[in-house]
Amino acid sequence: MSGLPDRILAPFGRRLCPVVAHARYGAYDVISVLDAEGPAPRPGQFYMLAAGERWGGGADERPFLPRAFSVLRRHEDGRMDFLFEDVGPGTRRLCELRAGDGLWLLGPLGLGFRRPEHGRRPLLVGGGVGIAPLAIWQDAVGEAEVLVGFRDAPHAAGAAVLRSPVVATDDGSVGHHGLVTELLSEDVDPFATVYACGPPPMLEAVRALCAAEGVPAQLALESGMACGYGACFGCVVPTRGGYVRLCVDGPVMDAADLELVA
Predict the structure, then answer these.
(1) Percent of the chain residues topping a pLDDT of 90
(2) Backbone angles phi, psi at 111, to 5 degrees
(3) At 138, which CATH number?
(4) Among residues 88, 109, 130, which one ends one of the domains?
(5) Are residues 162 and 197 in the same domain?
(6) CA–CA gap between residue 61 and residue 162 (Å, rounded)
(7) 136, 102: one domain
(8) What is the dihedral of CA 143, 186, 252, 87, to 10 degrees?
């Protein structure tokens, strides 16, 4: 084990940070923001994000709540990258951000990934926007095999944020024609520790496969969050030991603690 904590505590309150760059990867937008005063997050931790301006439409419209996003990558100068997909008004506004705009940050929050036990190899599995925390984790663990799945070629372009990923697509337009969990079933072995993030059906398939093979897995779960620090109880998920708040007890959970991934 690394001896490093899997949680870095967030500074009190949110802070307005400048956006410094934008890049496009097929269906995804990557926004870089400078947070030179904030602490470096642990891979797998997340931030509550809100655009500095126009966050919620017109003057008579209810503003959007901040949205929870995992860190894609952190650079030595304090820049952090976040990956977005335009799936509605809130994410569309985040995708529109460009250099000079402001982004409200609250974080880092939650529990991140833990290094594999001695002798085990990390095996990273992602689907869609779930590739985000895998990039910063790959940076931290070094050599690690990465399996990622997408619906089609425009989304598969997002695999470029990772090093040497093996790609699957639902329509067969890039890489393996099928599910990323099909690649996992061929590659997992008793010496692996699986790290996964993606849509719930994918995570449930990963959980079930790893349970059947007796392989430890850490899953970065997704849930709607209103506050990010445990006050609202809006992100509770069931575990073998009862319900937990994903924002403080996750988002990274041991697969063995879950009966099912909802």
Answers:
(1) 76
(2) -105, 140
(3) 3.40.50.80
(4) 109
(5) yes
(6) 39
(7) no
(8) 100
Lowest mean pLDDT among 125-134, 151-160, 171-180, 252-261: 252-261
Residues 83 and 46 in one domain: yes
9 in Cβ contact with 70 (< 8 Å): no
For residue 157, what are the contacts with CB-CB under 8 A and spacing of at least 6? 25, 26, 27, 28
Q: What value does the mean pLDDT take over residues 6-30?
A: 93
Co-location of 105 and 129 in the same domain:
no
The residue range of the domain holding 56 is: 15-109
Helices (H), the chain: 89-95, 132-141, 153-156, 180-187, 200-213, 246-249
Q: What is the pTM of this model?
A: 0.94
Does 183 score more than 70 pLDDT? Answer: yes
Contact 247, 68 (CB under 8 A): yes
Measured between alpha carbons, how far is 173 from 254 in angstroms, rounded to an integer? 33
- What's the one-letter identity of residue 78? G
Residue 190 DSSP label: T
Collapsed DSSP state (helix, strand, coil) of residue 133 = helix
Give whole-number Cα distances, 32 to 9, 11, 43, 90, 105, in Å: 21, 20, 16, 18, 12
Name the strand (E) or helix (H) holding 107: strand 102-109
